[in-house]
Amino acid sequence: MKFLRPILLICAFWIYAPVIQAADTGPTIATVAETIESGGYVYLRLEASDIWIAANAFAVSKGDVIQYSGGAEMKGFYSKTLDRTFESIFFVSSAGLASKNTGAKTAAASNRHKSEGMPMPKRASVKSPASGEITALKEGKTVAAIYAESEQLKEQTVSLNARVMKVNKKIMGKNWITLQDGTGTEPGNKLLVTSQEVVSPGDMVIARGIVKTDIDLGYGYQYEVLMAETTFSPGIE
């Protein structure tokens, strides 16, 4: 149970928090400017970027150099335990103290990019499809229809043509994938699916899976609709 709570939080945030973009999955080095520990988590403000991250609690102090990776960025996140709203915060998959050698190498690379006038690499974002942009399957459903007909479709296998927006790999033994097809309105314009198969953000796929409703992952986090045991084939552009 030690690692279950943060995993559930990350999964729930995918759907219920206003996710802006996936965080870089590679390791990132930063110096801590401020720390707050609450509810088994540590909230860290990073010195150079002045951004906040949240992770499973570990021993860390102001001035420490840390290494973190994975997760997602949320804006307007309210923490009940702190009674505080963060304008922007990254919930990361892992974080810990970085070795001195690792920190030095990363700092050197950062300084080289700046001195040579090269932009630091950024993760490409996936554009949400516009209404009518993606062709619906003749024998399938749309994201909007799955939400609207969720009670009738419960435990049934459905298919849809959609774009992969986000991917969280190997959480609770599954890959958690967010799909959009240009139908529905917030928050019912995104469909979370679980799968053993691997796809990438930006892929067009035909997803086929079992509709689940009223999923409770514990700690008060629930999903209105989810598609499980999903398989993928190439989508229709």
Molecular structure report:
This protein is of the alpha+beta class and 237 residues long. It folds into two domains: 4-115, Nucleic acid-binding proteins (OB fold (Dihydrolipoamide Acetyltransferase, E2P)), CATH 2.40.50.140; 143-234, OB fold (Dihydrolipoamide Acetyltransferase, E2P). The chain has helices at 4-16, 100-115, 143-148, 150-153, and strands at residues 19-22, 28-38, 41-46, 52-56, 65-69, 72-79, 84-91, 94-97, 157-171, 174-180, 191-195, 204-218, 221-234. A hairpin with a 5-residue loop joins β3 (41-46) and β4. The longest helix is centred in the middle third of the chain and has 16 residues, at 100-115. The radius of gyration is 19 Å and the shape is elongated. The N and C termini lie far apart (42 Å). 29% of the residues are buried.
